[in-house]
Amino acid sequence: MADVALDDRGRLTLPKEIRERYGDRYHIVQLHDGIKLVPVAEDPLEALRDEFDDVEKSADELRDDARDLALDEAGR
């Protein structure tokens, strides 16, 4: 973990090791007690494809399963 500070123009410089590991683009998420930097992939669509490569169900099947689970949890 590293401590960094904003410069006089409000810019934040991340350490080289962080940039090399996670890249140069980040989404800033505001939390109730701070912020979080979430790396943005060079090709977000390709990253999604890679993330869900092993999913064998269709989008309709996933949606139906999620709806059924929500209904069960709600006490259907």
UniProtKB/TrEMBL annotation:
Record domain SpoVT-AbrB: where: 4-45
Keywords noted in UniProt: Coiled coil
Coiled-coil segments: 45-72
GO molecular function, one term: DNA binding
Record flagged with keyword Coiled coil: yes
Entry keyword annotation includes Magnesium: no
InterPro entries registered for this protein in UniProt: SpoVT-AbrB_dom, SpoVT-AbrB_sf
Name used for this protein in its record: SpoVT-AbrB domain-containing protein
Species annotation: Natrialba hulunbeirensis JCM 10989
Lineage per the UniProt record: Archaea, Methanobacteriati, Methanobacteriota, Stenosarchaea group, Halobacteria
